[in-house]
Write the C-alpha coordinates for this entry.
Amino acid sequence: TCRGEGVDPDARVRHRTETVIHAPLKTVWRLQTDVEHWPAWQSPVESAERLDHGPLRQGSAFRWTTPIPPNPATDATSLDITSTVRQLRHDSCIRWTGPAIGDGLRIEGIHVWTFTRVRGGVLVRTEETHTGDQVEADVPAATEMLATGLEAWLRDLKTTAEAHSHLPISIR
Protein backbone atom coordinates (compact mmCIF):
# COMPACT_ATOMS: atom_id res chain seq x y z
CA THR A 1 0.00 0.00 0.00
CA CYS A 2 0.92 3.66 -0.24
CA ARG A 3 -0.39 5.84 2.56
CA GLY A 4 -2.84 3.06 3.41
CA GLU A 5 -4.24 2.65 -0.12
CA GLY A 6 -3.59 -0.37 -2.31
CA VAL A 7 -4.73 -2.02 -5.50
CA ASP A 8 -8.31 -3.11 -6.23
CA PRO A 9 -8.99 -6.00 -3.81
CA ASP A 10 -11.77 -7.33 -6.06
CA ALA A 11 -9.83 -7.29 -9.34
CA ARG A 12 -9.29 -10.71 -10.90
CA VAL A 13 -6.35 -9.55 -13.03
CA ARG A 14 -3.38 -8.78 -10.81
CA HIS A 15 0.35 -9.25 -10.54
CA ARG A 16 2.89 -8.52 -7.82
CA THR A 17 6.66 -8.66 -8.16
CA GLU A 18 9.79 -7.31 -6.52
CA THR A 19 13.54 -7.01 -6.91
CA VAL A 20 16.53 -5.61 -5.07
CA ILE A 21 18.27 -2.85 -6.99
CA HIS A 22 21.90 -2.27 -6.04
CA ALA A 23 21.79 1.51 -6.32
CA PRO A 24 21.02 4.44 -4.02
CA LEU A 25 17.36 5.09 -3.26
CA LYS A 26 17.80 8.61 -4.69
CA THR A 27 18.76 7.15 -8.09
CA VAL A 28 15.91 4.63 -8.17
CA TRP A 29 13.33 7.20 -7.06
CA ARG A 30 14.54 9.78 -9.61
CA LEU A 31 14.26 7.28 -12.48
CA GLN A 32 10.79 6.12 -11.47
CA THR A 33 9.34 9.58 -10.86
CA ASP A 34 10.90 11.37 -13.85
CA VAL A 35 8.03 10.22 -16.04
CA GLU A 36 8.94 12.22 -19.14
CA HIS A 37 12.24 10.35 -19.38
CA TRP A 38 10.76 6.84 -19.16
CA PRO A 39 11.20 6.27 -22.92
CA ALA A 40 14.97 6.76 -22.51
CA TRP A 41 15.30 3.66 -20.32
CA GLN A 42 12.11 1.63 -20.88
CA SER A 43 11.92 0.33 -24.42
CA PRO A 44 8.20 -0.55 -24.10
CA VAL A 45 7.32 3.10 -23.35
CA GLU A 46 6.86 4.83 -26.70
CA SER A 47 6.03 8.27 -25.28
CA ALA A 48 5.44 9.93 -21.92
CA GLU A 49 4.36 13.43 -20.99
CA ARG A 50 3.50 15.14 -17.74
CA LEU A 51 0.17 16.94 -17.69
CA ASP A 52 1.37 19.18 -14.86
CA HIS A 53 4.72 20.66 -13.81
CA GLY A 54 7.12 20.27 -10.92
CA PRO A 55 7.96 17.22 -8.83
CA LEU A 56 5.64 14.24 -9.08
CA ARG A 57 3.08 14.61 -6.27
CA GLN A 58 -0.44 13.65 -5.29
CA GLY A 59 -2.72 14.87 -8.05
CA SER A 60 -0.02 14.82 -10.74
CA ALA A 61 -1.14 13.33 -14.04
CA PHE A 62 0.78 11.92 -16.98
CA ARG A 63 -0.04 10.34 -20.32
CA TRP A 64 2.05 7.56 -21.83
CA THR A 65 1.82 4.98 -24.57
CA THR A 66 3.00 1.40 -24.76
CA PRO A 67 2.52 -1.38 -27.34
CA ILE A 68 0.47 -4.46 -26.55
CA PRO A 69 1.04 -7.86 -28.10
CA PRO A 70 -1.52 -9.22 -30.54
CA ASN A 71 -4.34 -10.92 -28.68
CA PRO A 72 -7.89 -12.11 -29.39
CA ALA A 73 -9.51 -9.58 -27.02
CA THR A 74 -8.74 -6.54 -29.18
CA ASP A 75 -7.36 -5.22 -32.45
CA ALA A 76 -5.43 -2.58 -30.49
CA THR A 77 -1.68 -2.53 -31.02
CA SER A 78 -0.94 0.08 -28.35
CA LEU A 79 -2.42 1.57 -25.22
CA ASP A 80 -2.81 5.25 -24.43
CA ILE A 81 -2.64 5.47 -20.64
CA THR A 82 -3.55 8.49 -18.53
CA SER A 83 -2.37 8.02 -14.95
CA THR A 84 -3.14 10.18 -11.93
CA VAL A 85 -1.04 9.98 -8.76
CA ARG A 86 -3.42 9.28 -5.87
CA GLN A 87 -0.88 8.76 -3.08
CA LEU A 88 2.81 9.51 -2.82
CA ARG A 89 5.37 9.49 -0.04
CA HIS A 90 8.75 10.78 -1.21
CA ASP A 91 11.38 8.00 -1.46
CA SER A 92 8.83 5.49 -0.16
CA CYS A 93 5.77 4.83 -2.34
CA ILE A 94 3.63 5.89 -5.27
CA ARG A 95 0.08 4.84 -6.16
CA TRP A 96 -1.52 5.87 -9.42
CA THR A 97 -4.74 4.98 -11.18
CA GLY A 98 -6.17 5.50 -14.60
CA PRO A 99 -7.54 4.14 -17.81
CA ALA A 100 -5.56 2.41 -20.55
CA ILE A 101 -7.37 2.84 -23.84
CA GLY A 102 -6.77 1.09 -27.16
CA ASP A 103 -8.82 0.30 -30.26
CA GLY A 104 -12.01 -1.14 -28.74
CA LEU A 105 -10.29 -1.70 -25.38
CA ARG A 106 -10.57 0.03 -22.01
CA ILE A 107 -8.75 -1.16 -18.90
CA GLU A 108 -8.94 0.49 -15.48
CA GLY A 109 -5.65 0.07 -13.67
CA ILE A 110 -4.37 0.68 -10.15
CA HIS A 111 -0.60 0.53 -9.69
CA VAL A 112 1.34 0.68 -6.41
CA TRP A 113 5.12 0.96 -6.05
CA THR A 114 7.05 0.77 -2.77
CA PHE A 115 10.74 1.49 -2.21
CA THR A 116 12.55 0.23 0.91
CA ARG A 117 16.24 0.71 1.72
CA VAL A 118 17.95 -2.62 2.34
CA ARG A 119 21.58 -3.60 2.76
CA GLY A 120 23.29 -2.80 -0.53
CA GLY A 121 20.39 -1.09 -2.25
CA VAL A 122 16.64 -0.76 -2.52
CA LEU A 123 13.88 -3.36 -2.41
CA VAL A 124 11.36 -2.30 -5.06
CA ARG A 125 7.93 -3.90 -4.92
CA THR A 126 5.16 -3.31 -7.39
CA GLU A 127 1.62 -4.56 -7.69
CA GLU A 128 -1.01 -3.72 -10.30
CA THR A 129 -4.62 -4.68 -10.87
CA HIS A 130 -6.71 -4.38 -14.02
CA THR A 131 -10.48 -4.38 -14.46
CA GLY A 132 -12.60 -4.13 -17.58
CA ASP A 133 -14.71 -6.34 -19.81
CA GLN A 134 -11.91 -7.31 -22.19
CA VAL A 135 -9.37 -8.33 -19.54
CA GLU A 136 -11.99 -10.07 -17.43
CA ALA A 137 -13.07 -12.12 -20.48
CA ASP A 138 -9.71 -13.95 -20.37
CA VAL A 139 -8.16 -13.51 -16.92
CA PRO A 140 -5.19 -15.89 -17.48
CA ALA A 141 -4.11 -14.17 -20.71
CA ALA A 142 -4.61 -10.68 -19.27
CA THR A 143 -2.68 -11.63 -16.14
CA GLU A 144 0.18 -13.01 -18.24
CA MET A 145 0.39 -9.78 -20.28
CA LEU A 146 0.36 -7.70 -17.08
CA ALA A 147 3.05 -9.90 -15.50
CA THR A 148 5.26 -9.68 -18.58
CA GLY A 149 5.01 -5.88 -18.56
CA LEU A 150 5.73 -5.47 -14.85
CA GLU A 151 8.67 -7.88 -14.91
CA ALA A 152 10.19 -5.99 -17.87
CA TRP A 153 9.65 -2.64 -16.11
CA LEU A 154 11.49 -3.85 -13.01
CA ARG A 155 14.33 -5.30 -15.10
CA ASP A 156 14.73 -2.01 -16.97
CA LEU A 157 14.60 0.01 -13.74
CA LYS A 158 17.20 -2.27 -12.12
CA THR A 159 19.53 -2.25 -15.14
CA THR A 160 19.36 1.52 -15.57
CA ALA A 161 19.67 2.41 -11.88
CA GLU A 162 22.60 0.06 -11.32
CA ALA A 163 24.41 1.32 -14.44
CA HIS A 164 23.97 4.96 -13.46
CA SER A 165 24.18 4.82 -9.67
CA HIS A 166 27.86 5.72 -9.64
CA LEU A 167 27.60 8.65 -12.05
CA PRO A 168 27.60 12.13 -10.52
CA ILE A 169 25.62 13.59 -13.45
CA SER A 170 22.01 13.20 -14.48
CA ILE A 171 21.22 10.43 -16.97
CA ARG A 172 18.99 12.75 -18.98
